[in-house]
Amino acid sequence: xxKEQILEKFNTLRQWGSRGERAPHKPLLVLYAIGKLxxxxxxxxxxxxxxxxxxxxxxxxxxxxxxxxxxHFPFWRLQNxxxxxxxxxxxxxxxxxxxAYVTDLRNYNVAGGFHETISKQLQxxxxxTVDIIHSLLDAHFPASxxxxxxxxxxxxxxxxxFETRTRPSNFRIxxxxxxxxxxxxxxxxxxxxDSPVALEASHIKWxxxxxxxxxxxxLALCSLHHKLFDRGAFTLSKQRxxxxxxxxxxxxxxxxWLMDFHMxxxxxxxxxxxxxxxxxxxWHVREVFRGDYREL
Length: 296
Known about the structure:
alpha+beta
């Protein structure tokens, strides 16, 4: 299998999806396994001793909020993508949906990992590996997640690997203009000369989930509130009030940067036609927001 074929397989991972729901299970498992390879660890990883708890933690941290998390789904289903193999698969019983019984994965100490030829290529071709890592991050997560995910899976990329990843777009220009060059949460509007500093355009419904590059799907946010919004520390109500998560807590900065804005309306854009739409707010509440709303 040549380099282009391998890259294509990683770029076309089959993913479950419904109504814009996020399903980052396979990308997170693949990034975790790549991190292991880059550290020189065995390509085959035990489900019971390693995958189950670590992937569950990654899903809690970077996936949508769910009542339960199922790391055995990507572990088993990656076999269908032609990049992954599972040991002792013949011993594992299957459900009606052709998924593995978790008890069998544990009892038979089943392990999984990239096919040996793919593992060797990932270890020996750093350019290919960096391309795959970036493709997975770009396709499934907003940029504000990338550094945190790489740290969580213990992947360290050279600085130059990030230099040409941004794409030109009028979205940022249009959003900043719509919000009159100030953060919709705190009003931050520092400029260096004529250029705004640390002020960014945030998608409410992520592009990765089909969110459009339109003003009604955007907020102008300072870099701190952008990160907090993408990580689900706060969201918006249908009336465009700020709702802070009861999962968010802290000491220095928590009151000033989050709780002081709880239940207050955002600083609305200059035209009603730019106001954030309920459809996109609802997606953020379902797929990004963490925990429940705090009381006053």
